[in-house]
Amino acid sequence: xxxxxxxxxxxxxxxxxxxxxxxxxxxxxxxxxxxxxxxxxxxxxxxxxxxxxxxxxxxxxxxxxxxxxxxxxxxxxxxxxxxxxxx
Amino acid sequence: xxxxxxxxxxxxxxxxxxxxxxxxxxxxxxxxxxxxxxxxxxxxxxxxxxxxxxxxxxxxxxxxxxxxxxxxxxxxxxxxxxxxxxxxxxxxxxxxxxxxxxxxxxxxxxxxxxxxxxxxxxxxxxxxxxxxxxxxxxxxxxxxxxxxxxxxxxxxxxxxxxxxxxxxxxxxxxxxxxxxxxxxxxxxxxxxxxxxxxxxxxxxxxxxxxxxxxxxxxxxxxxxxxxxxxxxxxxxxxxxxxxxxxxxxxxxxxxxxxxxxxxxxxxxxxxxxxxxxxxxxxxxxxxxxxxxxxxxxxxxxxxxxxxxxxxxxxxxxxxxxxxxxxxxxxxxxxxxxxxxxxxxxxxxxxxxxxxxxxxxxxxxxxxxxxxxxxxxxxxxxxxxxxxxxxxxxxxxxxxxxxxxxxxxxxxxxxxxxxxxxxxxxxxxxxxxxxxxxxxxxxxxxxxxxxxxxxxxxxxxxxxxxxxxxxxxxxxxxxxxxxxxxxxxxxxxxxxxxxxxxxxxxxxxxxxxxxxxxxxxxxxxxxxxxxxxxxxxxxxxxxxxxxxxxxxxxxxxxxxxxxxxxxxxxxxxxxxxxxxxxxxxxxxxxxxxxxxxxxxxxxxxxxxxxxxxxxxxxxxxxxxxxxxxxxxxxxxxxxxxxxxxxxxxxxxxxxxxxxxxxxxxxxxx
Lengths: 87, 668
Ligand SMILES: Nc1nc2c(ncn2[C@@H]2O[C@H](COP(=O)(O)OP(=O)(O)O)[C@@H](O)[C@H]2O)c(=O)[nH]1
What we know:
- The structure holds 2 protein chains of 2 kinds.
- Chain A is 32% helix and 13% strand.
- By secondary structure, chain A is α+β, with helices and mostly antiparallel strands.
- Chain A has a single domain (3-84), classed as Arc Repressor Mutant, subunit A, CATH 1.10.10.
- In chain A, strands 2-3 form a two-stranded antiparallel ribbon.
- Residues 582-596 of chain B have low confidence and may be disordered.
- The interface between A and B is large, with 64 and 78 residues.
- Strand 3 (80-84) of chain A pairs antiparallel with strand 10 of chain B, so a sheet runs across the interface.
- The complex binds guanosine-5'-diphosphate.
- Guanosine-5'-diphosphate binds next to helix 1 and helix 5 of chain B.
């Protein structure tokens, strides 16, 4: 079990889904998920949420009627993203 | 004999509170840990005549000193206040939830393991053999459901066994893993049990390698100087938390090996995702999806568009009857040319607001939008951007202002400026209403083709703009890829989706009506003159500048509309409404078709197709609106770059207009 393999893989600059990581590292989705959780906790990667980008930040957002906002329940449908924290 | 104390330890959502409440019932006390804002929950219960105290330790991910919760928890345990620690794990995801146990290993306090959520694991088809796990760990282990009242008898028995046996976790195989890490053995040898009471040298070594602040500070104070230097040297060489974390997971896998069987193997990529995540076809699939989505948005839009045209014909009737009734030309004009005309435009636009919002809302709801963002994520690097820039771009499809604000997630200033500069090229919600509307007016069934052309020009525009702006803004440094979790495909929730679509359409209606009417009235007044429109100020100015505006393929009226669109795309519609209307206005004099009352016909009669094409490109790629300009400044805090971006967009919009005009001349 080498978690630095996951980080090394990302150095090529390509974005990968959890499933792709699992198949490239010959492991399961669940294993990738726990590694992500761990790496997030030690601060090696950072989660970026779709909510953070855009919605609620523009002044015109009164009652969620902003032109840039997605339907409330759709925000979860944008998926989660993690980026590697550069040292 | 005094009562035994049990401490509950588990990650958040492991079911700790449920267990604590079930054990103590009303016999609980909630306070704060001394000097901390962390909640302290204590309680008691009796079982078979014996009293027990329970401490619910604050939930946390691990035993590292990353938060107050974690420090409180491990200090409490190591101080020996608990006779036994009850460690909870989630049976439905043991490979990750046993991490707490792995991090606990090496603390010299008796413990037992509760595999909670047994019912959930069973429903998932997992078969767990607690006896096999118990054998490997050397502590009592049981399958449990904290929500099942009948399971508690077994719980008490397991607890009593752990207390009686003073059960200690067997860490031999974990230590074997640690020994594979460079520096572990060397550090461990320098430490002894006495360094910090309650922790074994193994545990301290691992925390030192993870650069745990509290342990590092303690070691600095307790160890002789020479040994401390050795420790620090090895810590520097070791791979730190990533290496020890890997050992913990490997140990967990060893424990679970043979003790857990799953009926289901790992899920495969769905058919659709195999296309979307394909290296080559992914992009094509995504572009096709967006194009089809935009074209599909015409379907719900067209009936509303027809309604707007209905308003036009009614307008003709009203005008005739008002004139017949003897109302002054000024008032009739104000009412018909400004008010009703403006409304008719707004209604036509609303159809597309409705259509585009519906289609893209639907794509988000079912999860396709996430795939789109995944595909473009990979392309961002080629533009000199980070993958996460894709999010501001997607938001910009709704509103450039939102996109600019969304660029906040990008911490590198140069990349942020570049992201915003590119986000401006993405036509916003207002553009997606006006462009299809005007395209339908001018090009009828050819309108979807215009939309497709705009999308391709957008991509080209962003690519060229990135090339131009990235010099001086971003360095091509090592870029790290991102990780995405694609949400599963959902069935749309039609109720909430429709509520959202109608809500946005309604909001847009009120906002747009205000702008269109205001702009319309100003320009109508400017073009009004009792002695004939050719004497109005606007007409004179217009004719003067026309030789210049023609360079870009725009008649002066459309040029003024273009300028108005810099303040807000709706402004352009207001100008067109005012300057191209029937009675008493400019075109009645300049054209012989004096009796046409229908604005569509007037536009068609007076604007050639190449001019219309030029205009559509000019306003689509003009600066988005004045508010977006302000939002841009707010995010990048640079007047220089804000002005640069704005000037660049004005220039490129006119350039595109000129190109579109000449392309149009070739076609028609
Ligand atoms: N199905 C099931 N749900 C449980 C079980 N134990 C706890 N839960 C539920 O899991 C959620 C989290 O439990 P809670 O006690 O708040 O977790 P804590 O964060 O560790 O305190 C709650 O909704 C509980 O009702 C269990 O054994 N089976």
